[in-house]
User: Fold this.
Amino acid sequence: MKNSNRFILLMFVLPFVMLSCNEYTEDIDLKMLASVDVTEEQLIDGREAYQTYCIGCHGENGDGKGPASKFFVIQPRDFTSGVYKFASVAAGEVPHDVDIYNAIDRGLARSSMPSWKFLSANTKNALVAYLKTFSPDTFSEPPGARLSIPQNPFAGDEEAELEAVEQGKAVYHGFTACYSCHPSYASPDEINSYREDIGQPARKYNIDLYEEKYSETVWGDTIVAPDFLKRKLKNGNDLQTLLMTIQAGIGGTAMPSWAGILPDEDLWAMAYFVRSLSIQQGTPQGKISYKENQELKKEIE
Ligand code: HEC
Ligand code: HEC
Assistant:
């Protein structure tokens, strides 16, 4: 969390969170008990933890409209939609409990969603059970097919890992054209040569090639497809997490799922490439900086 965010949290959000603790809602909708393997006690624990820690941002009814929500550009999730962003299923499918648990545990970097690591595993499980009561229709369906992490063909071989970055760069700018939403990290000539390698004709590029593009989510807010040289990744930037984010896509957003479309080796290569750009690990390992990448623009102008 940036210091400024932490300041906002302390000065404005916590008082609301504390105030809201006194409110007690009517009985929990125990409909969930019929379909899901949870006890009434767990739901009551979950509600208590929710009202203590989450209600200030996510709101009493789980609609993301808690009193603190107006302080944040990235809006707290509306749980009534039943759509979750980061999960081990193809984007848009019903997530597994462990996916929601992980998001609570880890928090989401670059947003105000904090990590709740300090809560016990029991409390976090109870929170998962309680969050699901906000969208009973979604969770009366079984979760989607779990995407596994395939074996990493590059692991442990330094040279192969460097080649993986290059392979990922080629796929990013070739077959998957990730720069249609995220920025490009190659010159127009390079992109055209990647296209040629897969039998696609050369083309001209717009001035926005090196910009991040905005799109709307199912919740109606406008979000950015991040420039990896500039912004942190919400879900984390270790290789396995990146592989999962790329293969699963991001529920409720424009970011599509690439599972079943890209071969495992290309998925891993893409994870290596994005990681080589990512600022999250401290200093970028990549060969390009944000400034250098912006200079590529001049070739188009
Ligand atoms: C300071 C505000 C804040 C508090 C407090 C907060 N959250 Fe969040 N939470 C957010 C924001 C903002 C997002 C949406 C981030 C995004 O979409 O990028 C979010 C998203 C989530 C998600 C969705 C993850 C996904 O993959 O879609 C879950 C689950 C979640 N919060 C659970 C909780 C729980 C449980 C608590 C209390 C223990 C909590 N949050 C407290 C701000 C908050
Ligand atoms: C149609 C638009 C679109 C395309 C194409 C697209 N993305 Fe995204 N991507 C997004 C959006 C929007 C977000 C931001 C989601 C958010 O912040 O909630 C995103 C976020 C991401 C993230 C960050 C996740 C995090 O943890 O914050 C990664 C990594 C990513 N995309 C990789 C890729 C790769 C690799 C490709 C090509 C294979 C790709 N994207 C293609 C729209 C797209």
